[in-house]
Amino acid sequence: MTVTGRLPGEEEGPAGEPFDLVVRSRRVVLPDGERPAAVAVRAGRIAAVTAYDAPAVAGEQADLGDVCLLPGLVDTHVHVNEPGRTEWEGFATATRAAAAGGVTTIVDMPLNSLPPTVDPGALAVKRAAARGQCAVDVGFWGGAVPGNVRRLRPLHEAGVYGFKCFLSPSGVDEFPPLDDAGLAEAMREVASFDGLLIVHAEDPVLLTDPLGPTYPEFLASRPGEAERRAVERVIAAARETGARAHILHVSSAACLEPLEAARRDGVRVSAETCPHYLTLTAEQVRGPEFKCCPPIRDGGNRERLWEGLAAGVLSCVVSDHSPSTPDLKVPDFAAAWGGISSLQVGLPAVWTEATARGHTLADVTGWMSSAPARLAGLAAKGAIAVGYDADLCAFDDTATFTVEAERLRHRNPVTPYHGRTLTGVVRATWLRGRPVTDATPPFGVLL
């Protein structure tokens, strides 16, 4: 990869002005597929996509050669935890980890921060905490909890991208779950302004306390049927109210059948999964750094999730980055905090498994960039196309590396990927045409 200034004899941009940046690669992932191209940037937006060797005047040139150029990833499922639990994670560290992993936009979950983002005042507190710290662009989800249904429209008007709810206990007392009546009430309210409800779907009736401290006992306490039953409840409520709903972090392949049937019937329900469910299996679990809710399941289940992704039943792959301090990851799986730290390594983790199954980088960027951008309504994100934000990632898709937890940018050195060799290295990240490095001050925008 080489970076230069203006080259002799080059032409100026279409408006007679030089571009700010031109990035060339023999492998650019565009909406219509992968091909050689030059991506020209002016004022933070993609101004032109031309032939790889087309001359152009620009203040800066980058030639990636055979290193791939991807749209910056959009991760719509990140728990930043600031303010209130900033020792778990914060905006400065989370967004540095995102940029190092090729992620240029995150949408922050309404928990586990204090206060949770369940009213406009709490959103203002969250935005104040984030301001000036963010290395990438950051948006915010609101929360739907018992008793706040009249605050959903004001939150929507204040700029959240949708509303998260739980159907089972969230793990923190300040963010309680909705029962069936609360779910229906929230859906009716959200449907009234065509908002989006995103749902942690596990049926509490089918969840039990683990019978012991081991992973098999924890896994048995949260069966796949609990996910399926909750997904069916969400589908029924969406069918009745006409609301848009999205199922978060699908771990069980048992959910695929009702989701596919709902899609055929035109119910406005979509679903996502996460890198850990596509790359890790219950048989590989070594310690509490693997614990999450819903849990990582067996290898056969993992393969069926890949089939659901290929078929379009699952549309997005997002991190559910949910970190904690190391002391909360106690050896007892029943007591350990449940959350996976993976924001920086999601792209290579997914690519490692995707390429082994014959999927392309266009597939991966569809799942990890364009589809999450569409879900949240981020119209200028998720593609390398004229008029879009110049959010770009240089990805060396054949290079390998071994994950070392202490070298990752997120706050605490805990991850189930430690020691795992992955394929694909992020070589550079641009946010609206500006490089993001450890040396650049944060210039991410609060969306």
From TrEMBL:
GO terms for biological process: allantoin catabolic process; purine nucleobase catabolic process. It is an enzyme of class 3 (hydrolase). It comes from the Bacteria. Pathway: Nitrogen metabolism; (S)-allantoin degradation; allantoate from (S)-allantoin: step 1/1. Residues 69-436 form the Amidohydrolase-related domain. Its EC number is 3.5.2.5. Pfam families: Amidohydro_1 (PF01979). One of its GO terms (molecular function) is allantoinase activity. Homotetramer. PANTHER family: ALLANTOINASE. This is allantoinase.
